[in-house]
């Protein structure tokens, strides 16, 4: 197993229980309210549409709050993640919410080896997933392998233009990181995570990659998918640029000043040709 998988998996295994215990993931609210949906899924409801009865898989599902939300909308959901600690939290949440979701442990590039090929109506990927993958073409092959003909990919993700901004500057937008995919990873050493917690991580080193929007679209086209929708948003569900953002009543962050300068996230949809 390559170093990046080991490094990132160890980091996410540490994050999982912290995220499940944090108020940011609203685990107890999911348990208390059978109608509750994650902010991420609720944001995209107008684009997601009616998914009742669809067989869906959530790639890189983490602790399963978005997966559970999709199941509550009527889809028959599976979840896949490489972190056993994340999957343990996801299974516990699904059980406590009395919701049937089957979870699978796997590197996303090997998803078609542990899940039935060409059998899903919906492949879903949420915020903050693609940056952990070194090859967008390998990811697109996974998507193409899992979808049945006529099946749909739905992804909301941080915009690659946002990932190219150096967040260390709180007074300006500075494009100092790569917009395009490169073979060399961005190497981070950080003991914090993105939720409210008093505990510091011990596995601090992670590897990440950016993927340009054109690279993502071209990779999907290369796997026989047709792009059916692309919407760029001026908001994202965490404070991606500290000191430069404000939060709205839906938990979405946007630039305080001239938010039209920078796309922060996007929703992309594609259909596998019959």
UniProtKB/TrEMBL annotation:
Q: Name one GO molecular function term.
A: methyltransferase activity
Q: What is its EC number?
A: 2.1.-.-
Which residue spans traverse the membrane? none
Pfam families per record: Methyltransf_12
Q: Which GO terms describe its biological process?
A: methylation
Keywords for the protein's UniProt record, in alphabetical order: Methyltransferase, Transferase
Tell me which InterPro entries the record gives.
Methyltransf_12 (IPR013217), SAM-dependent_MTases_sf (IPR029063)
Record domain Methyltransferase type: where: 58-153
> Which top-level enzyme class is recorded in the Swiss-Prot or TrEMBL entry?
transferase
UniProt xrefs under SUPFAM superfamilies: S-adenosyl-L-methionine-dependent methyltransferases
> Per its record, how is this protein called by name?
Class I SAM-dependent methyltransferase
